[in-house]
Amino acid sequence: MKMLSPDVNIRLIAPKRRNVGNPWFKRGTLYRAVIDTLRKASGPMTADDICKALLAGKTPEATRKQANNLQAAILPALRARKDGATSAEGFPQRWRLKEAAN
């Protein structure tokens, strides 16, 4: 760029942001895993309970920060579908699947 226009300030160009992937769930599969966990559950679960169930037996083992980030990703996924497939009750919110309308 300096060859074409020497007065361009290259320092003003922001570097490309690198997206850090999730080592356990590929893009778009986290919500499906959450729904599967809720299907297997005997009762309503908090986001922390869901996170612990999802990470059980996964390698590499999650650090505390990674577990918090995963829990932070689970909550918006559930809240976005609160009126659809899932419902919440109480505080902290305990999530469960809605009953299928036959």
Count of discrete alpha- or pi-helical segments spanning 4 or more residues: 3
Structural class: mainly alpha
> What does the overall shape look like?
elongated
Oligomer: single chain
The overall pLDDT, averaged over residues, is 86
3D structure, described in words:
With about 100 residues, this protein is mainly α. It has a domain at about 30-85. The protein is built from 3 helices and 2 strands; from the N terminus they run H-H-H-E-E. The chain has helices at about 30-40, 45-55, 65-80; strands at about 85-90, 95. The protein has a two-stranded antiparallel sheet with strand order 1-2. A hairpin with a 4-residue loop joins strand 1 and strand 2 (about 95). The mean pLDDT is about 85.
